[in-house]
Design goal:
The protein has 169 residues and is mainly β. Helix content is 5%, strand content 59%. A nine-stranded antiparallel sheet has the order 4-3-2-1-9-8-7-6-5. The chain has a five-stranded antiparallel sheet with strand order 10-11-18-16-13, with no helix packed on it. It is globular and about 50 Å long.
Length: 169
């Protein structure tokens, strides 16, 4: 999976191959092994070095964490965000609070939950095929899937409501 990571004016392109446990950035490949992973902590080994990230928090395309006692904040775009940018669409229009909108025209390939199910924020819900690419659409908030407006095989238009999440609280 490809990502773009921004810190101020500095931008890095990163390719993550979880299956082969290799990260590529700046023309270099780095093997890695995840030693420990929890919601707010990640311990990774690359060669003989250990890297500990603590206090991990995510909010849409923003991630913050502490590394070696220093707080770091990064803006991260995934493949879908990069594709939307390429075609001039706003990545932030992917979903408004509790609503999942089609980011582009396409075909619904798979639904990963049913109405009434509880969903965690960021949980994959819909696979949308657009321009011969499968795009994973995730829930914007945690809550109950209160409405599913599409079915598998259905063709959708840009900004068409696909699902509603009734947030908890």
């Amino acid at each position: 999976m490809k990502f773009e990571c921004r810190s101020g004016d500095l931008v890095h392109s990163v390719t993550l191959n979880e299956k082969e446990q290799i990260v590529e950035s700046g023309g270099q490949e780095y093997p890695f092994e995840i030693i420990e992973k929890s919601k707010q902590r990640l311990l990774v080994r690359s060669g003989t070095k250990l890297f500990l990230l603590n206090n991990i928090e995510t909010d849409r395309n923003r991630i913050s964490f502490t590394f070696n006692g220093k707080t770091c904040v990064r803006e991260v775009k995934d493949e879908l965000d990069l594709l939307l940018d390429k075609f001039g669409f706003s990545a932030h229009s992917r979903a408004s609070e509790g609503t999942i909108l089609a980011p582009m025209p396409g075909k619904i390939i798979r639904l990963m939950a049913k109405e009434g199910e509880y969903m965690e924020a960021g949980q994959p819900l819909i696979i949308l095929e657009a321009m011969k690419m499968e795009n994973e659409l995730k829930t914007p908030v945690g809550g109950v899937l209160s409405a599913l407006h599409v079915t598998t095989g259905e063709t959708v238009e840009k900004n068409q409501p696909l699902a509603e999440i009734k947030s908890r609280g």
